[in-house]
Every structure is written in C-alpha cells, then in structure tokens.
Amino acid sequence: MRRFLSQEAAKRFDDKLMGELGFATESLMELAGLSCAQCIFKEYIPDSVIVVCGPGNNGGDGLIAARHLFHFGFRPTVLYPKPTSNLVLTRLLTQCRVLGIPIVDQLDDYSSFSLIVDAIFGFSFRGDLREPFKTIIQKIKESGKPVVSLDIPSGWDVENGNITGEGLEPNVLISLGVPKLCATYFRGIHYIGGRFVPLSLAEEFQVDLPLYPGSDQIVRIN
Amino acid sequence: MRRFLSQEAAKRFDDKLMGELGFATESLMELAGLSCAQCIFKEYIPDSVIVVCGPGNNGGDGLIAARHLFHFGFRPTVLYPKPTSNLVLTRLLTQCRVLGIPIVDQLDDYSSFSLIVDAIFGFSFRGDLREPFKTIIQKIKESGKPVVSLDIPSGWDVENGNITGEGLEPNVLISLGVPKLCATYFRGIHYIGGRFVPLSLAEEFQVDLPLYPGSDQIVRIN
C-alpha cells in the first residue's frame, strides 16, 4: 500500500463516501460487517464467540458481523455495554435479537468463548480509555483468548498504535475500506474488507486499493 | 423447498423483514444486489453487460449489482428509462456515476453487450406490461443475448409464470430471500441469494431455507 490514512483523512474519506458519493450508512456498514464475518470464517472454525460492541459505527459493524457469523454457524453473544438512542444501532440489535443472539450489557468471564471480536472503537477514537471499556479491554487481554479487531485495535491511537500499552493486541485485524496509519504497527494477520471504494476516491487520497480475488469481499494483505 | 411464496405472502414477508425484524431497505438491498453480482460472476466471464433497471426496489437491486459487477471486472452500463424521486435509488445512481458506469435512459441496440441483467420488475408486479418496458422486454428477447433475472423474470405473473408469453425467458434466475411461486415454472439455472432470512420468519411462512456453503451469500438450487 502506498499510504495509510491519518485520522483526519479517514474522517474526510468517510464523509465523502456518505456525502457526495451517495452511500447510505447502512449499505457501507452491511458490507463492512459482512467482510468482517467472512474474515473470521476464513481464520476460525465456527464456535462460540463474544462480539464486543461499542456505542458508535464500529459497534454497528460488530452487530452486523454477529448476525452474519450466526448464519455461518458460529454461536455469537453480543456484549453491548453502552446503549445509545442511535436508530441504526437499535435496528441492528433487533436483527440480532430476532435470531436469538444473546445480548448482554456486562460480562465478567470470557473463558466460555473461543474467540473475541473487538468492535469497540473505530477510527474516531481519541483520548484516554474510559469505563466501562477500560476494564473490558483489560479483561479481554487477561483472558488470553484470540482477538479479532475491526478496523482499529481498541485502545490504540489511530495513528501511532498502542502507545499507552493499554490497547488490545489482536491476532487478526480487518481494515475497512483503507487501512489507517496505526495498522503499520500491527504484526498479526491483516485483512482488508469492504470492496466499495471508488478508484477516484482512492486516487484523491493517494492510497492504493488491494486486488480482491474473484467476487470476494476480503483480501489478506500479509 | 417446501413451499414458494405467493405474491401476497412475499409482500407480508418483506414488510416483516423491514418492520418488526428491524432491517433497513438499504441493508437488504445491498445483500440482494451483492448476491446477484456474485451469481453472475459464477456463471459468466467478466465482459460488457447492460443492467436494465425498473423504477422500484428490483431496479435498486440492479443498480447495486451493477456497482459490484464493476468491482468484479465487468463493464456495466445501466439502462434506467423511468427515473423516480425515490431517494434510495437516487443515491444508488450516484454511486454508479462515481464509478464511471454509463447510465442511459434508452437503448435501441443490445448487440454490443454480451449479457443482459433484468432488474425491471420484482414481486410487486401485476397487470399488463406497459411502455417503455413492454418494448424494452421485446427488444431484449429479440436480441437473443443471455439474460439473468433478479427475483422475478420481468413480464411474468408472480404466481403463474409467463402466462401472456410476453415475459422474458432468462437463462439464470436469482431468487432473493425465498423463491416466489412463479419460480416453479422456471427451467434454467436457479440460484437463491440474500442470506439474511431468520429461521423464525421462514417457519412462520412455512418455507425451507437453502443450505448456503461456508460464508457464501448465494447457492445454486438446481
């Protein structure tokens, strides 16, 4: 890749997609969440999985991933500790409930899950880790379970990586659309998902797009 | 499949998905359009394709399919003869334009395209074929080109098939969610796409869901 996106560029990139380029939040989120679930299916055998969802769009991607994972034969549980009135997320929660996916607002013990999906914070994250997510991230780390992060490993600075040491160290990272700068510090299995970026937008932001095989929505880049 | 859906049941099925089951139109359409593009990629080598879009949701599925086909290496042109003020479709048209996909409102000659995608009418169609679609369907038939229909072969009665003889006779049919009754009269290559139907909804409508392989969004059922 020629260049990863800074936090400010990622924000402008997203605004363009949903502004002048005409995408609905729900469409982009659906493709992002599907991509995440497909990466997880590639890397892990269907089993119990806890999908930890934050209150923003990254959490929405997680809820969609949980739904697709269910259809792929996983047994997802959603940890959603900080409900909001966001209509998009409220509807995504309903879709999970209809499938019988348990939704909990706290979790003390991660030992019964074979995999943890981190959909807590995305590229908008800045500042210090606050509760309840500070403790949740600590517990995830203590669990020793494999972790898959969506777009940004939660707790990482979006440009400079895990500078506080408090962030997760995922086994798999799925960059959505285009990787953000912090991905340069990531040493695990790295996928890009979300095959929706127009070439004109990539050129404007001077980023290369990956070559997706066939009709796949995901591609491993390392 | 135990049972296909009548027109009235298909309407109630769709209303439930987008009502109490919490789905946004854009999410379902995105998964439907992606499924269509993936079926086409399975059956045809990437080449020039004309995607004929009606003014309703079937046309929206077609616009999304055109966008994904572009990313898969096809060279789509969209024929969109009857513009509406529908915001969802307007945004989907923008997404196609951004990719440089030509959008035309009439077409006299289909001979330069190697494939025709029929996204004209969906399961809401009833009554007689009206212009401009009556002539368009006639021209598509006269072209002798292979045709892929989304959900319903345009011109068919949704329950009783091609009873007037005026409808298309597609090579490939992609049923979205659950096949409608007219699919029992279809003798070509039949796929189901749109892996989003909750088991509880299928049971309520007494329809079986297909077994999708792996993390695929499509499955051929004949």
TrEMBL record, chains A, B:
Cofactor note text: Binds 1 potassium ion per subunit.
A molecular function GO annotation: metal ion binding
First-tier enzyme category under EC: isomerase
PROSITE patterns tied to this protein: YJEF_N
UniProt keyword Metal-binding, yes or no: yes
Annotated residues for binding of K(+): 58, 118, 154
UniProt name for this protein: NAD(P)H-hydrate epimerase
Lineage, broadest ranks: Eukaryota, Sar, Alveolata, Ciliophora, Postciliodesmatophora
